[in-house]
Write a structure and sequence with these properties.
The protein has 243 residues and is α/β, with parallel strands linked by helices. It is built from 9 helices and 7 strands. A 7-stranded mixed β-sheet has the order 3-2-1-4-5-7-6, sandwiched between helices. Strand 1, helix 3 and strand 2 form a beta-alpha-beta unit. The termini are far apart. The relative contact order is 0.18.
Length: 243
């Protein structure tokens, strides 16, 4: 991620509908599929710490990021259990964590399969991975460049990679389903305008932000029971076999 984007992320992720909706969905999936009452959770690519801050209410939460600037923003939230490291070579022993969260992380690393495999290694048998990644290569644009993405995924690609790493995939769905036409419109306009690479976070009034978040919460309730056929993100829940 470009350095200046960390400040924007820190400013927006506590209230902006997309960040809040993504976070709530991940936490609901973790709560639904986790089998441990007070889990030890790794936040892979913890960024500026909004997700990690919520994970601390569920158990023992450890944040990892490869950029010290991100960890500095986490420290502003009073978070202390932080590690500087690379997702492709996690600085943790094998079979340590009950769960891992990786929200829009694997698209950033050169070796995404290596990062998924390392997450698998760090989990205890029966441990859970909850992840999200951006969907569809044809949506690629300035937003992806600003965030230093390497790729976007289809649901089939992500499911295949998780299984190759050894996971049992318990849930795999697209998300941002109802708002997908809006996302497509914004991304296509970005391409047509040939604007400089920067994160696309259109300003919305509070009432609209609340409505968009309500839509995302409704969608999250559906994803708990069904898999959606399209959307701008892929979400998955995968488990390390207990055996």
């Amino acid at each position: 991620m470009q350095t200046e984007e960390y400040a924007r992320l820190y400013e927006h992720e506590d209230r902006y509908w997309w960040f809040v909706g993504r976070r709530r969905l991940a936490l609901r999936l973790l709560g639904r599929f986790s089998q441990v009452e007070t889990p030890k959770i790794l936040d892979v690519g913890c960024g500026t710490g909004a997700v990690l801050d919520q994970l601390r209410t569920l158990g023992i939460a450890v944040g990892l990021d490869r950029f010290q600037l991100a960890l500095d923003f986490c420290a502003k939230r009073g978070i202390e259990d932080l590690s500087l490291g690379d997702g492709e070579a996690l600085p943790f022993q094998t079979d340590v964590f009950d769960a891992a969260i990786a929200l829009d992380i694997f698209e950033h690393v050169e070796g995404d399969f290596a990062a998924v495999s390392e997450t698998f290694r760090s989990l205890k048998p029966g441990g859970l991975l909850v992840l999200s990644v951006p969907a569809y290569r044809w949506l690629w644009g300035p937003h992806d460049i600003a965030l230093m993405h390497k790729r976007r995924y289809t649901l089939r690609q992500m499911k295949s990679m998780l299984e190759r790493a050894g996971f049992d995939v318990e849930k795999c769905s697209y998300s941002v389903f109802f708002l997908f036409p809006l996302v497509v419109l914004v991304r296509l306009l970005d391409k047509l305008r040939r604007r400089p690479a920067q994160v696309s976070l259109p300003n919305v009034p509070n009432w609209l932000n609340s409505f968009l978040l309500w839509v995302q919460d409704l969608e999250a309730s559906i994803i708990l029971h069904l898999s959606l056929p399209w959307g701008s993100s892929v979400v998955a829940v995968a488990r390390k076999p207990a055996g």
